[in-house]
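Researcher: We plan to redesign the surface later, but first we want a full-length starting point. Tokens attached.
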């Protein structure tokens, strides 16, 4: 059967997508005022007359009087007012005005569509703009704040739909993880404050979060919030190191805790006489840094991970290397370096050791000594 595609009423047209009659006004400034979709053509015509009445215009369809018998279809999906739109996730009406010159956006949420339109007019009046909805007057009854936290340092993330815990120190943001519970996020903020020696942001909240911190593991395994700290994927620990002049690197060990690694970085900076890379942290590491046995106090001596003993090696000026063997005892390795220096006519690297090596060199190093 043939379906009527054109209307005899002004401002009414057939919407192919929804297969309903659409009520819409074309204004003098070229803009359009939408009044919703209807199953009945005459209900749409009555809605057009309503729009005309709201805007102070002459009725387009004087033969159609009264209110529409049916409810406006899709009224929660498209607003009849400028600057008002329906938000599916929150199921609220959003009043929004964009200021192009200042590149600012003002948004507030309401249960009632008309209250949202009133708020749009209020924002326009505040910034000296023409009212976007001139047919509407008065102030909105109630404003709704969507997922705004009562705690300092806690905010709602619309993407993950969770509460974020975060503090700021010297223009640097310290992330504390995401939570389902708002109060747990506030407790986490207090934990961060305690770590950095700051007053608690939320003194009314005490204790530790009941919920485990979410999101921190994902973030920390890729990058650290501190300078000189990096995540080692293989050993799954934090590495502390600083880069000096001429490509030199100063290694500070590995840590289970990211903050402890950052404190160690500051220690390295202090030892090298350079400014701290993490000035917001002033204390020393609570735990002695790991891998203490992996670095030697003697020059030319390093730990061989594969053989699990000490390797001796000299770097010569011509770019070559002089290998001296592997030792179980670190002191013997240091003595061997001194022996190599004397053999090559170089200055002794470890002046504190004058004795000859007491421990036998590893079997794989014998050919070098023959």
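Model: Full-length starting sequence:
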């Amino acid at each position: 059967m043939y379906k009527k595609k054109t209307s005899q009423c002004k401002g009414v047209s057939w919407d192919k997508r929804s297969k309903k009659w659409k009520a819409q006004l074309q204004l003098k400034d070229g803009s359009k005022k939408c009044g919703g979709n209807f199953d009945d053509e005459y209900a749409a015509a009555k809605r057009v007359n309503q729009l005309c009445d709201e805007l102070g215009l002459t009725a387009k369809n004087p033969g159609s009087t009264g209110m529409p018998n049916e409810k406006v279809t899709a009224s929660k999906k498209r607003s009849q007012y400028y600057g008002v739109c329906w938000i599916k996730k929150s199921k609220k009406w959003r009043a929004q005005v964009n200021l192009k010159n200042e590149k600012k956006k003002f948004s507030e949420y309401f249960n009632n569509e008309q209250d949202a339109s009133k708020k749009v007019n209020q924002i326009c009046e505040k910034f000296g703009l023409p009212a976007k909805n001139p047919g509407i007057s008065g102030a909105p009854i109630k404003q709704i704040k969507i997922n705004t936290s009562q705690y300092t340092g806690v905010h709602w993330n619309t993407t993950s739909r969770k509460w974020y815990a975060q503090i700021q120190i010297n223009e640097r943001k310290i992330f504390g993880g995401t939570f389902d519970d708002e109060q747990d996020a506030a407790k986490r903020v207090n934990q961060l404050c305690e770590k950095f020696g700051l007053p608690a942001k939320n003194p009314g909240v005490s204790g530790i979060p009941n919920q485990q911190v979410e999101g921190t593991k994902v973030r920390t395994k890729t990058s650290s919030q501190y300078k000189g700290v990096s995540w080692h994927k293989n050993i799954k620990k934090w590495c502390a190191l600083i880069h000096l002049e001429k490509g030199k690197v100063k290694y500070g060990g590995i840590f289970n805790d990211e903050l402890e690694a950052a404190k160690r970085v500051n220690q390295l900076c202090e030892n090298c006489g350079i400014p701290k890379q993490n000035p917001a942290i002033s204390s020393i590491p609570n735990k002695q840094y790991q891998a203490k046995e992996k670095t030697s106090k003697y020059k030319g001596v390093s730990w061989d991970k594969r053989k699990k003993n000490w390797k001796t090696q000299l770097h010569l000026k011509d770019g070559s290397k002089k290998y001296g063997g592997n030792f179980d005892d670190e002191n013997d390795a240091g003595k061997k370096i001194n022996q190599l220096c004397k053999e090559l006519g170089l200055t002794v690297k470890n002046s504190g050791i004058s004795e000859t090596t007491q421990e036998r060199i590893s079997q794989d190093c014998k050919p070098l000594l023959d």
